[in-house]
Amino acid sequence: MLQGYAHSGNLEKMEKTYELVKNCVNDQKVQLIRTMICAYYKSSNTDRISKIEKLTTLIPEDDYRPWLNVLLIKTYVQENLLEGMEKSIRKAFEQKTIVMLVDVMRSIIRTYFRSNALDSLTNFVKEAENLGWRICRSLYHCKMVMHSSQNCLEEMENVLEEMEKCNLDPMKKTFLIMYKANSKWGRRSKLERLLGTMCKHGFEIPLDALSS
Question: Would you tell me which of 76, 127, 133, 177 could form a disulfide with 85, CB atoms 3.0–4.6 Å apart?
Answer without folding.
Answer: 76
